[in-house]
Amino acid sequence: QVQLVESGGGLVQPGGSLNLSCATSGFIFEPFAMNWYRQAPGKEREFVASISRIGGFTNYADAVKGRFTISRDNLESTLYLQMNNLTHEDTAVYYCRNPGLDAWGPGTQVTVSA
Fold this sequence. Notes:
Blueprint: E1 3-7, E2 10-12, E3 18-25, E4 34-39, E5 46-51, E6 58-60, E7 68-73, E8 78-83, E9 92-98, E10 103-104, E11 108-112
Parallel strand pairs: 2-11
Antiparallel strand pairs: 1-3, 3-8, 4-5, 4-9, 5-6, 7-8, 9-10, 9-11
């Protein structure tokens, strides 16, 4: 059974940092590119970042470029999203996704507030 489980969300002040994790199981992690998405209240789910299967290629939404870093540990079958210099506009539920299997995690809430 394919499973993706995000963790690491929470409440953080503007300018702060969080590191999200996505633990995966039920499939061989290494061959798949992986994504992060987010959905803010009242808005559609949007792409945040992607990483190639070995990690050599990454891509970011303009809104997070230079502040967020996607990475992966193929030995641990885990995806990460390091988020720095967070702003109110980053408040959302963050989801990891395996696009090849069209599998999603349940999401983790990130709230940026003073």
